[in-house]
Q: What sequence folds into this?
């Protein structure tokens, strides 16, 4: 039994052998019964799925002066100067968030609270009863959290003096503000875990939620994450010459033009939130819930490498990823590729390694081409993977196949692997499979 | 009111692998190392002083608990010097000590690295360096070298660096739940060991002082102009601090195979959320009650068998009142006899590192048999009606201790630590 306080419904485990215990953990099937989304693909489930199926990349765009995304009533902090990015579309926080705290929430918190509410709603769990409020967990991953209000706050402090800190803004600057607001929005008093795993924050949150569920710490978990486009993220990418030239902030673009360096980056930044409602399959079936897919596995592990770099050896990363993901056929790979060579190589190595283990090559889905790259994008990828498994197919033609992939299978998709990687050699595979 | 001699019911009492603490390391205003911390814990002198890390002009409050980083950070990979933040360096200082204490080589040689996890919490990560970047940019100066530090700006950076420095290849997580970050990291680490996901986990947390947090709490009027005085009738707010606490958690079987002694067992952990307000405690302290009760249930111990409670005890009027209410609610008739103290009067509030460093204070209490006093506490608030230890350490056999951490966002975590010989 977990040392964390158990919740009724948790399966007891005994035995001292670690691997035996680990296998016991994976034997408890966890179902995905609700999905809540806010992204460049769309602001709700149906629109997102349609855009995904259509390969609609129009969410990757330059914000016009009158773009609805600039609505100051929805997002009080102006978006940063970033020419081309995966800006969310069609999202009106006032229509999705009911808490009176809405006016205090930053943009990321608004996206996350809306996605969390939608996930519970989609799962048919609203209104929450008192017991479930205490037994539900929220697990939210984010690379940077609230970047833009942090910048606003620091600018004020550094231009007007240290005594000019804004009391209304400061509480929003912690990474877990969004998770806290989501809990307030839904009245959820169970475990509330926020984390960062840089580029794999969404996948890591799902792994954390699976740990909590398997440990019996909660009855259901709403997990995923959010990220906004902010100056620090853009600067960090620009500093490493990874940002696509069309997405550079003006100052970085000027620097790149002067030096001739930094013009070959590939990453198009994005923003959004994705939350998945997870619960034991037995519980879901007992209440007659629709099951999109099973979350067959979600774990984090490390491959050796420097703290600030992605796994440098693509083959080693792929091997570790599949080792951690566990055995079983994979019909589709939702890749980590954001256009950079290192991520493309990891995707190719994963596809190749899977192809060597099974008769059919998996379909390859580079979904970030439609929504841009952000720390919690893996949660969106997992949501799309679950929907694809539920539909039994993935759309064709999201872009070029990775070097090692052949023609993608687009039907008969019963199991999908979401490839999560982050700096520090982190690998965070997520596996979703058909429920039965 | 619950019976204080009965353990909270636990639906599934069967226990899997026990989680032992086999190493600990700490750095804070109380010094670099657990020995220095243990010595200061017995005393009544605060280590909260005037801030020297940055200019505090314009602030009414200018004191905090600053750590003295060694000239050379142990374990820091050569290539990481240019990118590492102060928070990263604090984490590595504590890690080096914890590994040595646990008789584990810095490169984990002799261990199966794939079975070694990393769970390190932080609230602000490399904020101090991020501030420097912003400040330089705002004043139209070239941010040049500072941009490299942006790689360490995320709260995940200390965990990434711990993994890279040691070669740990197991699961990794960087919880960031404000002031409960490292307590939750310890809870997650214990969960991994219990479930068999890892045999050893390097866990804890780190946070450096930063102008954002100092000015933020200042703006909220939550800072005490003098070193904080938790639970005192004249308490005026909190004092910030910085530091890191790292633990080596290990399954009992793994520790036995290595032949290393354990300091204590992580017997239980309780997580909860207030779900009421981002900064103010729940008016009925529901979140704190849930966390305490879940931790006791997880450990299968009765409230009456707790020998020491290391309180969150920030020194703000709201926190101390809500926490006292939760203690009275959970411990019932045992509450007035439960020795309670806060270490924040000694070293300040370490934010994301607080949970880990305060867990280490609790482990020291178990190991050395004393309850630390609450530095700065002169006249306990009579409204609380609890046994706050003050003035000097109280000699006492501590077999089971509870350490509580509550954070912005309403994120709460209580840990139950039990003497290893009682396992």
A:
């Amino acid at each position: 039994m977990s040392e964390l306080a158990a919740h009724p419904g948790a399966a007891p485990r005994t035995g001292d052998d670690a691997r035996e215990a680990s296998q016991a953990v994976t034997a408890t099937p966890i179902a995905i019964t609700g999905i809540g989304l806010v992204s460049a693909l769309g602001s709700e489930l149906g629109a997102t799925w349609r855009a995904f199926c259509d390969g609609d990349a129009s969410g990757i765009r330059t914000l016009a002066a009158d773009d609805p995304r600039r609505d100051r009533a929805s997002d009080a902090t102006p978006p940063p100067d970033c020419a081309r990015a995966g800006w969310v579309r069609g999202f009106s926080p006032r229509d999705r968030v009911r808490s009176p705290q809405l006016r205090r929430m930053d943009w990321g918190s608004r996206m996350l609270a809306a996605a969390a509410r939608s996930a519970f709603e989609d799962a048919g769990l609203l209104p929450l009863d008192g017991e479930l409020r205490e037994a539900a967990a929220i697990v939210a991953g984010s690379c940077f959290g609230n970047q833009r209000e942090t910048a606003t706050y620091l600018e004020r402090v550094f231009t007007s003096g240290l005594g000019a800190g804004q009391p209304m803004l400061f509480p929003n600057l912690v990474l877990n503000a969004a998770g806290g607001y989501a809990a307030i929005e839904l009245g959820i008093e169970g475990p509330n875990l926020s984390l960062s795993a840089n580029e794999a924050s969404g996948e890591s949150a799902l792994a954390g939620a699976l740990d909590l569920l398997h440990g019996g710490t909660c009855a259901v978990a709403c997990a995923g994450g959010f990220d906004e486009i902010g100056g620090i993220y853009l600067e960090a990418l620009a500093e490493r010459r990874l940002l696509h030239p069309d997405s550079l902030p003006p100052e970085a673009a000027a620097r790149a033009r002067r030096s001739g360096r930094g013009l070959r980056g590939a990453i198009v930044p994005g923003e959004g939130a994705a939350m998945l409602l997870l619960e034991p399959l037995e519980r879901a079936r007992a209440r007659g819930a629709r099951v999109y897919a099973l979350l067959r596995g979600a774990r984090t592990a490390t491959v050796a490498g420097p703290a600030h770099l992605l796994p440098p050896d693509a083959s080693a990363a792929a091997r570790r990823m599949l080792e951690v993901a566990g055995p079983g056929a994979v019909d589709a790979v939702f890749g980590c590729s954001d256009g950079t060579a290192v991520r493309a190589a990891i995707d190719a190595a994963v596809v190749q390694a899977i192809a060597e283990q099974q008769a059919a090559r998996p379909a390859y889905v580079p979904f970030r081409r439609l929504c841009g790259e952000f720390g919690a994008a893996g949660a969106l990828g997992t949501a799309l993977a679950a929907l694809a498994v539920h539909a039994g197919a993935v759309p064709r033609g999201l872009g070029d196949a990775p070097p090692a992939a052949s023609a993608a299978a687009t039907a008969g998709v019963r199991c999908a692997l979401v490839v999560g990687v982050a700096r520090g050699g982190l690998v965070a595979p997520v596996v979703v499979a058909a429920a039965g | 009111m619950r019976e204080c001699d009965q353990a909270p019911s636990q639906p599934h009492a069967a226990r899997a692998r026990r989680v032992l603490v086999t190493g600990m390391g700490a750095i804070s205003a109380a010094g670099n190392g657990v020995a220095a911390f243990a010595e200061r814990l017995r005393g009544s002198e605060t280590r909260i002083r005037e801030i020297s890390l940055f200019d505090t002009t314009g602030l009414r409050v200018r004191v905090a608990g600053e750590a003295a980083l060694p000239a050379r950070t142990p374990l820091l990979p050569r290539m990481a010097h240019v990118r590492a933040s102060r928070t990263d360096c604090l984490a590595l200082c504590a890690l080096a000590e914890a590994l040595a204490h646990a008789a584990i080589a810095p490169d984990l040689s002799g261990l199966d690295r794939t079975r070694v996890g990393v769970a390190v919490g932080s609230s602000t990560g490399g904020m101090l360096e991020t501030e420097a970047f912003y400040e330089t940019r705002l004043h139209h100066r070239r941010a040049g070298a500072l941009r490299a530090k942006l790689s360490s700006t995320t709260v995940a950076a200390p965990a990434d660096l711990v993994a890279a420095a040691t070669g740990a290849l197991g699961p990794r997580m960087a919880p960031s739940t404000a002031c409960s970050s490292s307590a939750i990291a310890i809870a997650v680490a214990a969960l991994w060991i219990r479930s068999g996901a890892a045999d050893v986990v390097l866990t804890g947390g780190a946070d450096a002082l930063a102008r954002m947090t100092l000015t933020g709490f200042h703006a909220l009027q939550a800072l005490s102009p003098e070193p904080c005085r938790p639970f005192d009738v004249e308490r005026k707010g909190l004092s910030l601090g910085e530091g890191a606490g790292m633990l080596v958690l290990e399954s009992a079987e793994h520790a036995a195979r290595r032949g290393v002694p354990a300091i204590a067992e992580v017997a239980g952990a309780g997580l909860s959320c207030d779900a009421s307000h981002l900064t103010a405690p729940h008016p009925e302290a529901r979140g704190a009650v849930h966390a305490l009760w879940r931790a006791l249930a997880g450990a299968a111990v009765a409230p009456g068998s707790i020998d020491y409670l290391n309180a969150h005890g920030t020194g703000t009027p709201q926190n101390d009142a809500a926490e006292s209410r939760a203690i009275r609610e959970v411990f019932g008739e045992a509450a007035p006899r439960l020795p309670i103290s806060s270490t924040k009067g000694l070293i300040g509030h370490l934010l994301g590192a607080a949970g880990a460093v305060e867990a280490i204070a609790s482990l020291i209490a178990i190991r050395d048999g004393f309850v630390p006093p609450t530095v700065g506490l002169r006249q306990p608030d009579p409204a609380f009606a609890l046994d706050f230890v003050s003035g000097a350490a109280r000699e006492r056999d501590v077999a089971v201790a509870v350490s509580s951490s509550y954070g912005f966002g309403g994120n709460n975590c209580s840990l139950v630590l039990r003497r290893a010989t009682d396992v």
